[in-house]
Amino acid sequence: MERPLEGIRILDFGHVLAMPYCTMVLADMGAEVIKIERPGKGDDTREFGPFIDGESAYFHSINRDKNSITINMKHPKGKQLFLDMVKNADVVTENFRPGTMEKLGVGYEDLKKVNPKIVYASICGFGHDTVYPGRPGYDIIAQAFGGLMSITGYPDKPPTRVGSSIGDIISGLFTGIGILSALRARETTGEGQKIDIAMTDCIMSVLENAVARYFATGEVPERIGSRHPSLAPFDVFKTKDGWMVIAVGNDSLWERFCKGLGMDELLGDERFTSNEARSQHHDILKERIERWTTDKTTDDAVDTIGKLGVPCGPVNTVDKVVSDPNTAHRNMVVELPHDKLGSIKLVNNPIKFSSMNTDIYMSAPHLGHHNRETIKKIAGYTDEQIRELVDEGAI
Amino acid sequence: MERPLEGIRILDFGHVLAMPYCTMVLADMGAEVIKIERPGKGDDTREFGPFIDGESAYFHSINRDKNSITINMKHPKGKQLFLDMVKNADVVTENFRPGTMEKLGVGYEDLKKVNPKIVYASICGFGHDTVYPGRPGYDIIAQAFGGLMSITGYPDKPPTRVGSSIGDIISGLFTGIGILSALRARETTGEGQKIDIAMTDCIMSVLENAVARYFATGEVPERIGSRHPSLAPFDVFKTKDGWMVIAVGNDSLWERFCKGLGMDELLGDERFTSNEARSQHHDILKERIERWTTDKTTDDAVDTIGKLGVPCGPVNTVDKVVSDPNTAHRNMVVELPHDKLGSIKLVNNPIKFSSMNTDIYMSAPHLGHHNRETIKKIAGYTDEQIRELVDEGAI
Prior knowledge:
The structure is a homodimer. Chain A has about 400 residues and is of the alpha/beta class. The first copy, chain A, contains 18 helices and 14 strands. Chain A has 2 domains: about 10-205 and about 330-390, 3-Layer(aba) Sandwich (Rossmann fold), CATH 3.40.50; about 235-240 and about 245-315, formyl-coa transferase, domain 3, CATH 3.30.1540.10. Helix content of chain A is about 40%, strand content about 15%.
């Protein structure tokens, strides 16, 4: 066994980001993911920029290690093909609007008649079981509705969307945990079940301290920029060529920090004698520290402060983090061969096992590239039957 | 079987947030999580505010559904007790600095001698296998180093930390997927393995489009606030009493939006005829749309625009999202009985199964509350032996 999830077969209607992210992680780890796309068009993200020679770099980053087949689910033979595949699959995944699969006659209740062992996982904005069945749930809507935007950003700026689609991604990760848990339970019960993930639930689940504080005190948490609510200096600071973070969590680090940087005068200043006092005067403190940091490059400042044993680090831009020595050491960027582009660079799977491989092994599929082999293998159709499906527009 | 992960036993050195978040999710789903804490003091977060009657609301929010035992790992009998428990456990989890477990003589290589089936998972800033073994990896350092801060926030403001500790949480979720995958592989191989999670790897893995864009074009992604890079209007907008998001992704929605809100004049304006044009003039467009939104409450504006079929939603503050009807409908806030506080409110697990329960069932443990029963059950010690451990300060 080379990869930990070998032997799990997933029929995946995932499109755009939330569910494709989930099945990407599982595919890297060895699950057989069969991406089911609309004939002719496929996943919308095939047409999302940025492009490399006409291929969507975005689509490639999320769909590596998957097989692609096309099915017209509105064609009776297309639907039958899918049901024939469900008989030999472990998991069905989708992130349509609620009700879409039911309208096609392939909701969980339909599928479990065909295969009671099937695990069915859905992701949508507000859940299948919801008071808002018709509401769309894009990432920005989930980040906003779930409360995360209200606590991200600076007080004098609007609520801030996280710079990547964290609402989709976190939902995908929770769904991955759900699928693996349901498969484990199936070992005991012999039966599958449905997992109903709402992006807004997932966002609420990652608010951590903000909700704990609200329930404990009734105070509604607000945006406070990058700083820590009760520790200081614990924030982002300007340097000569960029930005860095410094995380002084207690008085002994504070002393080491001041002495090490020749700011001894701050130690006697009563505005800075405790975390509470420093937090209260974080603005003045930041100004004073930036007088030191803006004079140094990020690398020099991180080096000097790091040597004092004070936690700190650079604010890396994307070019910096992908070229950091630790990124190479941990093989976090891989370059895959691609039949049209020659090769393509992607961020690798971050789950590192001591005795198994989870590295990306195959670039994203062309639309319907695996139709014939997959339909033969999983549905057991003959060449003749497959030709019919093509002729009739069912795949 | 009531919960999907019943039968999995986890010995958890997790402290603060990253690993405790992981084991919290697994505990909600039925895994038996035994939180191992330092005698007398316990997890640092027991002393993190906010407090309710002296109990940390923060600690409670992350450690529900777990058992607590105390072990002095530097005491030979404490260490032996732990090793005796490893013999009857499935998983060991920790988020110490690299090398800590090895120094105690309980690194993965030590543990697999005692139980070759053990799955061992670690989370730290830069990985156990790293070029930066001594570097601390707080959440803010991972968010900064991994590139997420550089793309979050407004261009005229500093890089922005996400308002919750997403670096810890995402690492916890990836680790959960890793643990369940390793347990599945063990069914086939009969052997455990080690999982080495770096928070900085995990942050890189969620940058999605930002990295795809950089690899495709060489352009270093920058902060653009809450708006979409290539669609408009797709952003946050001020209302009379707060904020809302509007997500117009294509020309037909744009037409519906303008006509529905009586902004027909914008349809003829050549600055707004395509997504590309609208993105280019997003500032002017935002000003125009805010002339409409600032005059309405968030609820009214969301209602009006939503009825047009245009995706939109409120930017909920924490009080709003926890009291939303869908939150109640999905049982996302639970109130648990607590022996000291009477009851405590927490955000529920977001993974909803059709035939199993994943709701929180037990409030967080007092320090060492489960010493006696757990040590008897898992290590098979007698009352006499346990008394000795207490007398000698080993637990």
